[in-house]
Amino acid sequence: MRWLGKIFDLSVYITGIMVSLAVLVMFYYIARESAYAFRQTFCWGYRLALLPGDAEPSATPNTAHYSSLVVVNPEGADGLDEREETLPAPTLEQMRSEGAMLATATPVASELSQVRPDALYRDDWRTPKPAEKGDRFLLLGYASPEYAQSTMYLAWEPDHSFEPRLPPYRLVLRLVRAPEGVSVQPFEIDLKKQPSGRIALPAWIARSDAERTQGYVFAVEAVPQTRTFWATLRGLFTAEWAPTLIYPRYGIVPLVLATTLMSLLAMLFATPLAIATAMYLSEIASPRVREWLKPTLELIASVPSVVLGYFGLMFVAPSLQHWLGQALGMESGRNLLTTSILLSVLAIPVVASVTEDVLKTVPESLRESALALGLSRSEMLWKVVLPAARSGVIAAVLIGAARVYGETMIVWILSGGTAVLPSFDSPAAFIRSLVSSTRGIPDTIAIEMGNVTFESVHYGHLFLLGLLLFCITVIVNLAALYIGRRQVWRV
Amino acid sequence: MEGIGDSALVVARSLQSGRRLRRQLADKLFTGALSGIALFSVVAVLAIIGVIIVKGLPIISWSFLTSPPAEGMTAGGIYPMIRGSVLLMVGTLVIVLPVGILGGVFLAEYAGTNVFSRFIHASVASLAGTPSVIFGLFGLAVFVLMMKMGVSLLAGCLTLALFTLPAVVFTTENAIRSVPESFIEAGMALGLSRWQILWKIVLPNAIPGILTGVVLSTGRAAGEAPPILLTAGIYYATGALPRGWEILKQPVANLPYHLAEGYRQGGVIPEAIVWGTCLTLMLFVLSINIWAIIVRTRVRRRQRW
After folding, report:
1. Distance from CA of B159 to the nearest CA of A (A)
2. In the CATH scheme, what is the code of domain A252-490?
């Protein structure tokens, strides 16, 4: 019997320590997985072309006949279905037959000495290197003998969805070599400061196909500037969440703002209702009424949130759209406002039941002395009971807020799903963003984890979002615990 | 002079009675408003449940509950999902019961009251308030990928068990703490050891409270979609289950996952079936809870202290 007791003691200690460390273990593993977010290899791509000297100011490399694409991206470039890396650079004959007079070409080499006249291509794709390595593309520019103007432009623009400010490189476009007999000021353009533009150059004409390599040589260079870690971190604080783009964006600001906004709104709806319900239950209702009311309230707390979400989708959203759609300019019933309403339904029983427990702990003597001093019941409740229970009520609201902040299914079903930054410019714009489609943190995790490649950069970012959510809710819960422990009436 | 004094008294009295009236009115208004708001909350709650029942009831039939989906989810029943939910719940209970109860015993009887025990309390409380999707992430990273269980019933049960663990620990602790001190003192007076007191006196008296708490928290877990979404769910499941332990290695269809994934797939499931599934899930969770509440009240009546 004695050894049985020892074994029991031991197992209780082991389990107890396991349980108390569970939250730290969870924190560790989620943080560990989010490290994948920092294994980002930053892709970048540029489209360059020569434009005639009389080209419109609005003309871009995209409109030029023989524009070159230099891309560091395993996926290819935006707008192209497949990689066309073996497309040869245009010969003079080809240019003549197609009526084009200017062309660019890449030698797929990064040193001038390696340029071979028989291996010129229009585009260059590369697999991304680690951010510490950098990269360099050479680019040749030439005109066909038919070209009669004295100047031409070198124009550049980022590949369609590429944002030059995000990668950890200093991106530079420079003149490496001017052709013989042409005098031109060397230039070096910082592509982060000037993402697209053009620069005028004296025209240079290739007399034969072999001469194409003798003309202008430009270089697009990626010079390592910051560490991958800092670039990834800085990328988080941008306003666009679009992880499936070829140049993915992982800006979590819109998600965090949306979740915060919908939780605040939901608590704004729920708090007065919940506190009033709790006060009625604990102070006014007769015992018979209370016996029925409390389980009813507990009933809604046990309705699964996915069911509440569907209820919102099939019942609340259409009616809201019907009654308020015109007045508020709603495009759909699935928006931030509807989400907040359903979230408040979730929060009311949580806040009410904790508040009621707190009100019960307010000593009866306080109520009796208040009444003895001649206060009416409402004055007693408002001026004595509620202030006495203040810290507990705040704790209850915080617990409800944490619950709402991490709620997934309601937001998933009702938010509409577009990650946009809410607008704070004017009241009208703010209201419009309240009734437009949005997307929060928890639903993004749950939705996108379904189609993500495990242990990829995107996967890491979803864990990073989870880590953020975890930290926020733990802090709010600990604050509730700390505040709720203070009992005002003992002071 | 006297007249003036009299009228002053009258004015003062009428002022006073006006104030009293105003106070009475304010009192009535305040309590009225509170009752009104409480009534509104309760009616809203009942209305939500009512709408789900009214919309879901027409499709619920014996064949809906016992046949698999047909014609690419557009017809048929939801039997595999109900079966999966039951399996998940049973698995979760089997895992969480011993761990949670031992953890609760630790908190109530072994941890004492010091800085360390306050740390444990804070850590379990923050686990209790952690969103379910975080448990899903953890389950995915640790059970599914690191321990190579794959998306499976076992990984789902473990994740859900972790999700319900803090609630079970806390209810166990409360149930143990509510056993009267005099019982324990009587045991000590009889010369019982700590473990005998626990085993023979504390736990038997605390077990009803523990069980209802466990069942209530498992009920909540049964309705949560996000942990299952990342660790155990499968959308198309009509075939028979494998025999024996193989079942633990397979993903299972279940009610919350079916609703969530059905939404992701974009409105393939007809609305009537969705309402029916919602109602089934709600009744599934409610029946668990109601059972627990009934047991709790019956036990409370029988308690001898």
Report:
1. 11
2. 1.10.3720.10
Which tens digit of pLDDT belongs to each residue from A61-92? 888 888 888 888 877 665 554 555 578 888 88
Question: pLDDT (tens digit, 9 = 90+) per residue, B139-173?
Answer: 999 999 999 998 999 999 999 999 999 999 998 99
Tokens, residue B137: 């992430």
A88 close to A119: Cβ distance less than 8 angstroms: no
Cα separation of A258 and A427, whole Å? 17
**Start-end of H helices in A380-436:** 386-388, 390-405, 409-414, 427-434
Strands A135-143 and A44-52: unpaired
- Domain B78-302, CATH: 1.10.3720.10
Contact A379, B27 (CB under 8 A): yes
Residue B126 is nearest to which of A284, A413, A478, comparing CB atoms? A478
Complete DSSP assignment for A204-245: -B-SSGGGGGGSEEEEEEEEE-S-HHHHHHHHHTSS-EETTS
Report ipTM (2 d.p.): 0.89
- Name residues whose C-beta falls within 8 Å of residue A312's C-beta, 6 or more positions apart in sequence: A338, A339, A341, A342, A410, A413, A414
Cβ neighbours of residue A478 closer than 8 Å, sequence gap 6 or more: B122, B125, B126
Instruction: Compare CB distances from A315 to B51, B99, B109 and report the shortest one's residue.
Output: B51
Task: List chain A domain ranges.
Answer: 44-227, 252-490
Q: What is the DSSP letter of A113?
A: G
Residues 6+ apart with CB under 8 A from A342: A308, A309, A311, A312, A316, A410, A414
Unique residue bearing structure tokens 């029942």: B53
Residue ranges per domain, chain B? 2-58, 78-302
Please name the residues between 19 and 58 in chain B that touch chain A, using a CB distance below 8 Å. Answer: 23-24, 26-27, 29-31, 33-35, 37-38, 40-42, 44-46, 48-49, 51-52, 55
